[in-house]
Every structure is written in C-alpha cells, then in structure tokens.
Amino acid sequence: MGRIYQQTGSRFYFMDYRDAQGVRHRESTRSTDREAAGRVLKVREGKVADGQPILPRADQVKYDELAADLVTHYQTTGSRDETESGCRLARLRPFFTGRRAVDIRPALVTQYVAQRQAAKAANGTINRELAVLVRMLNLAYENDKLARVPKIRKLEEAPPRQGFFERDQFEAVCRHLPPDLRVAAAIGYTFGWRMQSEILTLERRHLDLAAGTLRLEPGTTKNGEGRLVHLTPDLAAMLREQLARVDTLGRQLGRIIPALFPLTGPQRGGQRRQDFRRAWASACKAAGVVRLRHDLRRTAARDMEREAVPRGVAMKILGHKTEAMYRRYAIVSDADLKAAAVRRSGILLGIGGGLCLKPSPQVGNIPAMRP
User: Fold this and answer.
1) Dist CA 114 CA 116 (whole Å)
2) Span 329-354, pLDDT tens digits
3) Which pairing describes strands 346-351 and 354-359: parallel, antiparallel, or unpaired?
4) Does 153 reside within a domain?
5) What residues make up the domain containing 318?
6) How far apart are CA 188 and CA 194, in angstroms?
7) What is the distance between the alpha carbons of residues 65 and 100, in angstroms, rounded to a whole number?
8) Could you tell me which residues are beta bridge partners of residue 3?
9) DSSP H helix total and E strand total for the chain
10) pLDDT digits (tens, 9 = 90+) for 129-168
11) Do 43 and 91 fall within a single domain?
12) Which residue in 116, 206, 251, 362 could disulfide with 121, CB within 3.0 to 4.6 Å?
C-alpha cells in the first residue's frame, strides 16, 4: 500500500508507492487537498494492480524535452532531413515551449492551428508541422514519457498545384538561361529530380558518360534511397559539354573541380552552386512564362504517365515511395483529356431519332513531349 505525505516547504501532497516490479516511486500529486491526493494515489495503485506501466515524472515532462529527443532521434537515425525538420520545429517552438507534454491535447493543438492560419500559413504547411508534432508525441510514448498519444486531426489541404511545362514553354525559358543552368533544367525536365537538393548537388563522379548514366548516392535524397537513370542522347550531349566547361574553369583556377554545376565568379569560382532563383525568375519573365522550378518535377511525372512508363519505374526515377505522392504529381491536363476523347475512336451520329456509334479514322499516338 502506498502513502500520502507532505514535504516541508511544499504546498502539494506527495505519494509514495511501489509498482508491479517492486520499484519505489515518490512523486507529487499536484494537489493541495489530502483527500484529492488520496484519490490520485488510488488511481495509481489501480494501474499497478492492472499491470499498466508507470511513467515516472510523466506530469513534469515538457515540450522542450520531447523536441530535444526528436532532434536526437533524427540525428542518430538519419530518418529526416535536419534542415527541413528544423524549419518546422522553429514554427512549433514559440507556441509549445514550456508546456507540459500531458497538456498537448486536441484543444491546445486547435489553438496552434488557429494561430498559424491567422498568420496566413497554408493548410498543407500546417499539416507538415503537425506531422512533426505527432512524431514527437509518438516518440515520447515509445520512450515511456507519455501514457497515450492524443488524436490530432489533419486539415483539409488545397488540391495539388497543376503547373507544368509544355515543350515550347520549357524551350523558351531555357533560351534565357546560361548554358550550365540549361543543363540543370533539362535534368529536372527529363527525370523530375529536385533542383536544389538533388541536381545542384551532383558531382562529376555521379556522371558516367561511357555507361550513359547519372546517379544519386543513397542518403543524399529526400527518401534516403539512391537513384540511377540512363541518359537520353540529347541530355548526354549537354552533359558532355557541361563537363568541358567545368574542365576549362578548372584549368583557369589551377585545380580540379568536383562539382558538376560550379559557380564561375572570380570570388567563388569552383564552389558548388547552391541555387539560381533569380536567374530562373528572370528567364521566365523574359520568356513570358510563369512557372516554378518545381513544375519541372510535375511535368516529368505527367509526361512519364502520358508516355505509359510503368508506374513503378516512374516512381523510382522521381524518388516517390508511395503511389499517393506520385498521383499528386502525375497531373492530367486539359489537353490530355481532349486527347483521351479522340482516342475513344468513336463519334455519335443521330439516325432516325436514335444514336449509334460510327468508327472514326484511327488516330496515331500523341507525340512524346520529352527530349
């Protein structure tokens, strides 16, 4: 049997009891009333009798500790990009810091959502932040720091963006990009790789012109898996020219440059290019085309679907682990819907008040829109 007592200098009553393994526990009931404290002890003894786990200091664990545990988990397992998760933790921190883990309930999460919506955050962005919070709470449960994980509902998200390039639009933008960035854009257009985290990080060792392949190392992609693609003839020729430009820059600087897309300026010549948002915006403006670079990824998914590339192959090239994510990118355009109607190869003719189908001339395949 346990006992209730009050420590000197504390206004709360404490309880002293043993769990099913005989381990002794002393903790605050967080009650100033002895009878109420006794009821807390009886609930705890009931859990011991039922064989339920006793979580030490569960009422004292705060969000800050859970967030630190999550960061450590990401660092040791490599299961999440630290920059990406850090950005979402930065959004959660101002609201949840200092709060007890047991107080993170649906009502409190609703307050957080309302605050983020008032700041004009999109529902999709908020959902990504809530996913980090849920992972944090699940980890706390696994580490016996939380008795149960609250039910946190996601928000309804807007439909996926439907921006994608037609071939003439892509070529128009490329005409206003410098040669090296045309090559980077062509990789994105052909294979749908992410520009900043995958294409611009490529090094010479990832390119094998003899075998005609380009690869991403395991651990360098968003899903952690490596990828290898076979180059189209046009893209192989563009990459050969890019290598020649890198070699020329290396001779000018007097050293070997490992990056496939290095900067060429006098101050940072040879360093890997981090981004080119301004150059992209200027090229789009000059071409009269309003498109994001991420639209290249959507375009690749749509075109592979249009060209009847097996879905498993397309997912492997794009780096999608689930069909649900792939379907968000394999968008159907209005032109695709019109083409489908033509391919139905039949027209309705009214004859004597009735309807019948008359075969239409055979329609050839729509030409592929890839390089």
Assistant:
1) 5
2) 655 555 555 565 555 444 444 444 44
3) antiparallel
4) no
5) 167-329
6) 7
7) 10
8) 16
9) 13, 8
10) 999 999 999 998 888 788 778 899 999 886 656 677 889 9
11) no
12) 116
